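4-diphosphocytidyl-2-C-methyl-D-erythritol kinase (Alsobacter ponti), 296 aa
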Amino acid sequence: MAAEPAARAGLDPSRAPAKVNLTLRVLGRRADGYHDLDSLVAFAGAGDRLSFAPGPDWAIRVEGPSAADTGDPADNLVLKAARALEARCPGLPRGSFRLTKRLPVAAGLGGGSSDAAAALRLLAASAGLPAGHGAVVAAAVATGADVSVCLDPSARMMAGIGERVGEKLGLPPLFAVLANPGVAAPTPSVFRELGLRPGQRLREDPGAPPPRGRAALMDWLAARGNDLEAPALRVAPAVGETLAALRATQGCRLARMSGSGATCFGLYDDCHAAARAARTLRTRHPGWWIAPTLLR
């Protein structure tokens, strides 16, 4: 990752966008029980928002439509990230965070990881550190597997347990609708349902990288999938209903589950088709969380 301040990179450090797994292949299960993954991720316009103000100690206030689902603030990944960076940067100025939680929680969108990455960007800017400083990157790894890929949110490949992050891919923007039916698909339960033994391998070759052109990219995506989709359907059958609802919308080119679920996405040719699909879904499923967005 380039060692440059977030502001110079044109990235709003307070923005915590949703992470969407366009593909997710499980290569196998390691001897330590963790799963090796190979995933193309992109980031949405939809997301949370985080702010930081200097203060005497670490604190966080959570508000917004999903605030009630975030659990004990003391366990929030934002504070874990702050303490991880402080451990690597003695004298780091402490303070309080204000998190506006808009993304559904535990939904396969990496919301907590993206929040933590935003905290690291804000703290780096406050301390005058470049966004790619070694301490910032190390703190991301220490906070959680998906935090590293969220530090500089752009389409890229992610491997290992999520800690190995590829270069920016410069893919064409993808018009999408995100849909979450409001049910839980806990990640540990989904991986248990996958049923791999420690040391068991499904494949060794991560495969060819994605092409840059839109038509070729859509073909590449269609030929790949999400290996956690089938086990997630057994854990949370509402995932199947969500996928069917997306596929039934006019102009849907591809529908797939993100991460371990239960959020799913549909891809469309343009913003107008995505907006129409979102309106249709909101009419038919008023209790769902639905967001038309741009993935890049």
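The radius of gyration is 19 Å. The longest strand covers residues 35-54. ok done for today
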